[in-house]
Specification:
Strand content: 25-35%
Strand order of the largest sheet: 8-5-4-3-2-1-16
Number of domains: 1
Bound molecules: zinc ion
Structural class: alpha/beta
Radius of gyration: 18 Å
Distance between the termini: 5 Å
CATH topology: Metallo-beta-lactamase, Chain A
CATH architecture: 4-Layer Sandwich
Order of helices and strands: EEEHHEHHEHEEEEEEEHEHHEHEE
Number of strands: 16
Shape: globular
Helix content: 25-40%
């Protein structure tokens, strides 16, 4: 399984910035998990091949690229973009984004080949197939209904938390996986903003360390994701001080093979 966190921005030299403003993970060049920078940062091959988008939750940094991605492809789509999401997330998209005020309601439109978007509702705790992947949605602990995912192919499983604060169910599921190839866990804020982390349901480095005490395995690398760009330096330094074995910060733009 190949995974690439799409870049969010470029730096002053025109190169991929390490700062992550958006969440969008492309797996095997054809399935996107979240859609923050989907329209702006896919390469041409990914734009042609991605027709499935799986959403953790409806916050803007996770869905911002979806309307523009569908718009870019509107004339040429020979099959709809399939948006896999929980019912409450689908309802939020239709009410707040695809409402003709912010953007067209693509679910009511067709091109010459047919529908351009199709919603596929999933339930937390249940498994579903997306292309060659088997996905299990697990409830996590965020300000709005949110899912983490266990994503499997024939070679193994990776686990992505999405945005979350302290969790239990997610760890129960992750600890049961037969072959875990990678854990991707958020750490949005630095320790000094622990109160903000509590009200916004995110992790700090200290809270991350506490969460990892529930991670009962040592067979998997740990990649930190979703660090708020304004606090990146502080969070990275605080994670370094934790001394956790096998932990690193996921690099935007790089393809990881599992
Ligand atoms: Zn969020």
């Amino acid at each position: 399984m190949k995974l690439r966190l799409l870049p969010s921005t470029i730096d002053g030299a025109g190169l991929v910035s390490e700062r992550q403003h958006f969440a969008c993970f492309v797996i095997d060049g054809c399935v996107a998990f979240d859609a923050g920078s989907l329209a702006s940062s896919v390469n041409e091959q990914e734009r042609e091949n991605i027709r499935d988008v799986v959403l953790t939750h409806a916050h803007l940094d996770h869905i911002a690229g979806l309307p523009l991605f569908i718009d870019d492809l509107f004339q040429t789509l020979t099959e709809p973009v399939r948006v896999h999401a929980e019912r409450s997330v689908i309802d939020a998209l239709e009410e707040h984004i695809f409402n003709w005020s912010i953007y067209p309601r693509f679910s009511e439109l067709k091109n010459r080949f047919g529908s351009v978007v199709e919603y596929h509702e999933f339930e937390q705790g249940k498994q579903f197939d997306v292309r060659h992947l088997t996905v299990r949605a697990v409830a996590v602990n965020h300000k709005v209904p949110s899912s983490g995912f266990l994503i499997s192919d024939t070679s193994g499983t990776i686990a992505i938390t999405g945005d979350t604060a302290e969790m239990n169910e997610f760890w129960n599921e992750v600890n049961r996986v037969e072959k875990l190839s990678g854990l991707f866990i958020e750490c949005a804020l630095p320790n000094e903003l622990h109160e903000l982390a509590s009200v916004s349901h995110h992790l700090t480095a200290e809270k991350l360390a506490h969460e990892l005490t529930k991670f009962e395995r040592d067979d998997s690398p740990i990649y930190v994701i979703n660090i708020k760009p304004a606090h990146r330096e502080a969070v990275v330094s605080q994670i370094g001080l934790l001394g956790v074995k096998g932990i690193e910060i996921l690099e935007a733009g790089r393809t990881y093979q599992f």
